[in-house]
Amino acid sequence: MDGTAGGRACVDQELYDVITKAKSGDKEAFAILVKRYKDIVFRYSYGMLADRMEAEDVSQEAFVKAFYSLSKLDNIYAFVSWLKRIVSNLCFDRIQKQKKTNSVSGELIETQISNNDMERRDLRMTIEEAMGNLSPEHREAIVLREIEGYSYDEISGMLNIPLGTVKSRISAARLLLRKEMIRELED
Fold it and tell me: With contact defined as beta carbons under 8 Å apart, do 51 and 65 qualify?
């Protein structure tokens, strides 16, 4: 056996068993999945929302939604992509709600940045503001590529969009970020 199933890299047997148990309603097995993926889910949602509290809320909501929907997952090997799709949809919903209420996204987390490091704080604010100005589709693509480190092919599979669309979204996002950063730094 070559370590693949249907052309996809196999999930290790232990993880496969945990997901199978969780699919049948085993709460302890699901708790193992939460523990294993909570940091990934949080980083992804924070990358999309740039707001710690919103990201924590989305992370929690994503796991609740995943628990109740896990029985519908057909391909255990696609668990991570499926979970990220849930997170992505929840983030898009939050972004749309924020746009409707004109609330400002991109809260700066002062506790993570030294008060003496004004330049770094300003740069972080500029980046968060620039990311906040991207469309949700561009933001999602750039977060998956630059923050999460996924390949173009992996992103294409996760988002279920053509490879060319992934490349154009990332290219456009980089261009928009560059323009936004230059504009912000010139002000």
Answer: no
Same domain, 117 and 187: yes
Between CA 187 and CA 181 the distance in angstroms is: 10
Digit-coded pLDDT (tens) for 25-63? 899 999 999 999 999 999 989 888 888 899 999 999 999
What dihedral angle (degrees, nearest 10) is formed by the CA atoms of 163, 168, 171, 176? -140
Name the DSSP class of 115.
T
Q: Indicate whether 140 and 88 sit together in one domain.
A: no
pTM of model > 0.70: no
Note whether 103 and 19 are same-domain residues: yes
**Sequence-distant (≥ 6) Cβ neighbours of residue 160 within 8 angstroms:** none
| Per-residue model confidence as pLDDT tens digits over 116-145 | 456 666 667 777 777 888 888 898 898 888
The answer on 117 and 103 residing in a single domain is no
